[in-house]
Amino acid sequence: MELCRDLEALRTVLARWRGEAVALVPTMGALHAGHLALVEEAQRGGGKVVASIFVNPRQFGPTEDFARYPRQEAADAAALEQAGCDLLWMPSVGVMYPRGFATNVSVSGVSDVLDGAARPGHFDGVATVVTKLLTQVRPDRAVFGEKDWQQLQVVRRLAVDLNLGVEIVGVPTRRDADGLALSSRNAYLSADERARAVALPRALGEAARRIAAGDDVGVVLAEVRGALEAAGFVVDYTTLVDAEWLTAPVAGRSRRLLAAARIGTTRLIDNMAVE
Q1: What phi, psi does 43 have (nearest 5°)?
Q2: Which of 54, 151, 168, 229 is most exposed by smallest CB count within 10 Å?
Q3: Residue from 5, 10, 6, 34 nearest 22 by CA
């Protein structure tokens, strides 16, 4: 696996691959089995796989965890090499946002609700860095996890709107044996918090089954909130939305159940399809 930290080196490698399909897996590092599942998906169909590791300061708010976000470059590089990744793109903040950088990418609509409302500016930071990664690597496909469902819809929207010519692929959420979605932030949880955190996927799973069966959505969502609060969560939101637009559900279109809640100092998100 090759490692590039500056644009000239990246472009040199990509030039050698001209004519081959390229897939990109953007990450912020602290890799787990969910990230490696993205690499596995990227390898389908052959071609080259580029993984990026960049902890993006523009998507963290002033009181969020940028400084303490887990960083383990050597372990991540070893895991990617073992998984068969062809290139690791690991730029510095100075490479990504050089002096005088003044451009912001904003995706209206899907960025404005849920985590966009709870974390002002977050999705502008996501959209800006993803646009840069896609224009730097120019992949045929880019692979993202479905755990951050809203982020996936933001990225899909910007790829279409900006005519980037890249296929955005979503990969189902990987979970621990007890159902908790894999996340780099799970490392923040104490043993007690980790044990109680399983209430999140359990409540969403039961709610998705009940809503699909025709139970009253308002009643079910209120019970989800109650179950999470009983487990010690402070709930940001629990909601049922149109899966693509994140607006009120419309008959005949796919629906998604989303939730965000804090346990201790750790904010967890999760989502499930409602058939």
Answers
A1: -80, -15
A2: 229
A3: 10
